[in-house]
# Entry
Amino acid sequence: MPGRELLYIKIANSLEQQINNDTLKVGDKLPSIRMICRQHGVSMSTAQFAYYQLEAKSLIEPRPQSGYYVSNSFRKKLAMPGASKPERRPVVKTVSDIIENSFDTAAEKNFTVFSRGVPAVQLLPVAKLNKSMLQAVRSLPGGGTIYEPLQGNEKLRTQIAKWSFNWKGNLSEKDILTSAGCLSAIAYCLMAITKRGDTIAVESPCFYGILQLAQSLGLKIMELPTSPQTGVDMDYLKKTIQKNKLATCIFVSNFNNPFGSLMPDEHKKEAVRLMEKYNVPLIEDDIFGDLYFGDKRPTCCKSYDEAGMVLWCSSVSKTLAPAYRVGFIAAGKYRHEVMKIKLFHSLSSTSITHEAVGSFLETARYEAHLRKLRKTLYTNYLQYVRVIGESFPDGTRISRPQGGLSLWVELPKKIDTIELYNTAVSKKITFSPGHMFTLQKQFSNCMRVTYGLEWNEKTENSLKLLGRLVKAEL
Amino acid sequence: MPGRELLYIKIANSLEQQINNDTLKVGDKLPSIRMICRQHGVSMSTAQFAYYQLEAKSLIEPRPQSGYYVSNSFRKKLAMPGASKPERRPVVKTVSDIIENSFDTAAEKNFTVFSRGVPAVQLLPVAKLNKSMLQAVRSLPGGGTIYEPLQGNEKLRTQIAKWSFNWKGNLSEKDILTSAGCLSAIAYCLMAITKRGDTIAVESPCFYGILQLAQSLGLKIMELPTSPQTGVDMDYLKKTIQKNKLATCIFVSNFNNPFGSLMPDEHKKEAVRLMEKYNVPLIEDDIFGDLYFGDKRPTCCKSYDEAGMVLWCSSVSKTLAPAYRVGFIAAGKYRHEVMKIKLFHSLSSTSITHEAVGSFLETARYEAHLRKLRKTLYTNYLQYVRVIGESFPDGTRISRPQGGLSLWVELPKKIDTIELYNTAVSKKITFSPGHMFTLQKQFSNCMRVTYGLEWNEKTENSLKLLGRLVKAEL
# Structure
């Protein structure tokens, strides 16, 4: 019966493949003979033959009254050729390689990840958030399994609206729409108000996530001159908006990533006035707004927005829980368009993490946590400045962030920070080369280092080592 | 001092606004005087004046040693004009109104929601999922606050790979990328492989979420003739693919929503062969695949895909937990492009719900739950057929789904189901008018009713009432 023979070999082969690629791991139980029969529409004996085949190869073993399991013995019996040992990590050549690898690098142990744009887990209120999660599971209908209204979790929206009082936003929960993090919020806004081929304006340097997103949506990107202290150059902005048809501007008005710059209130007002006059919506990324080093929470462009021109986006990814994916948008008069994009692309948010953050914000915990976090970040920043001053070569320049998480370091012109990146990675250190923050030929001698790590001996030594690597390149 | 006077009035006004729009609710604590000083850069006396102002209006009240609270008394003292009472719900005229309202309707109590495309919460294994959530909080580093690798949660990917053996998919965890639900998976795929102006082909009728998404991405949509039994018309597909430049096809190969049709294995093989020959990627939406009424799990187009042309998308939204937003993609040779879109648009998934589903699938619970759910859905389906047979007018035709959640009902030609929808909503019943499932002039006398509800007296009565409403329209 050649047909039957083929069938059992086919089943055996596909299981063997799953064992070889570790989808089925040593000790895993295999599907029952009956299950095999049902799923593949074969007889008991065909299924049994398939398993005999695998057993004969020592790949699986039967256990009495329990079924078949992936065996360990095949690994011992069949001597395998030694594994090859090429460089573990691809040598990266381009900015997009670095960005794509950055997640996986960040997950690796023993790395000092100066490239991570979020606070280290030790700085997050994990135990209290865990409690809020349990509370959310208990209080949500169906334990958070069922869809909530399209606009998003009500508790969260109410809390964000209340919080907006701190930056003179005066939002109501009706103004707010939730999203899966701030980047997803910006993505919704861009998809709602731009179309392929449109031109948008951003700060320069600009967070690479925004550049990549805008590029992938087919937008043309104008990079505006930006001061490391006061943000986008207002005169230049004015000229640009007069001369060009802009679909939108995206500004990180408070503690721009990577500069750490802060737009003064007067600039924010002026920006809103310009947008209104020329009918250009402004996407404001306020993700760092609560991480101020000064004595008060800065306002936002949204604080001065009477005509509804500002699409204010933020999240708790820099302050509470990056992987909860909790973001929010107050989209002004574009609210309905943005809501439609949310409907088309994702239907609903993850209720449970959104409810948990809502509960967390209801208490005074958030303010207490922020006070601590801001203090830690500011202390870290001072330590970085000290060590960079001591260890980096003469001619190094650094930004003076007034909040946020990142420090911009300009090295002597000769240094190419993409080359330096490869050297640093081989020493288990990462940072973000300056070229990631532009689409033009600039910043090749710059880097962003974030100070969201715990400050300890290892961090300090890594930063010193980075300084030595820079010196060695010279 | 007119400047100071203005300032305290401004602060008072913005708080009053928050009280009036219920952002600050009766009993809520107001920010402390000190906080007001800090945030608004005003003196203690200015802040205190602002609060006096509000107190004078009976909007807030001080409590000793505790601060100011939103008062209840102003609601009593100031008699308010009676509220107007227009129709609670907007009378909907267009398909997109219905879609946008559907979430909010679904959340309302006492409605019988035949329009809901997910199983009722009573059919979900909520208690066991809650356990998996607690386990996820405990086992994830940082309680699930920190980013996981871009590709997605490893436990989940491993389980989906193992599960793929059931439909002869033989995926490895490396083939799989996670997403925030199936619609988001399809969105990533479309953004990765199409561009504005491209033409794509879909089944007709087609799930409205896919139509809306594709439209919003600027794609032209070709609707293909589709059998309620065997899915897309293969001869027609062949001619279409020969004559047109298609960027992709999207097929719900197993239990198409809304038809419930099932592509036979031969059609699946043929479809894959065609896509390969004409180099057209196929997006396969397999979200209903595990909800079969027959004796075995149907295969997918992906099961026959040797060249990597199929982008297989699915989720647990129809089987476990819609609002967990857990979806996954095996994108074949388009894997890298799709991963980039995930990076650009969302960075990372919500680790905690993805880990919870991974844990749930590790046990035998999923298979046990599915067996029960399939039985319930099949029984429901039979009940629907009986009641529709008894209560709907002669000439009514219904589909014979072989799995999934939805029943397609074709009413006598005279009936306009959008008009019927408005009548039904006034009786607290919703369904999905047929016109939602096409961009053309068709299906105006059709409706989708889903049988994911608990079958009980209320459901039965609502379905009977729906029949009477149809008869009344004739």
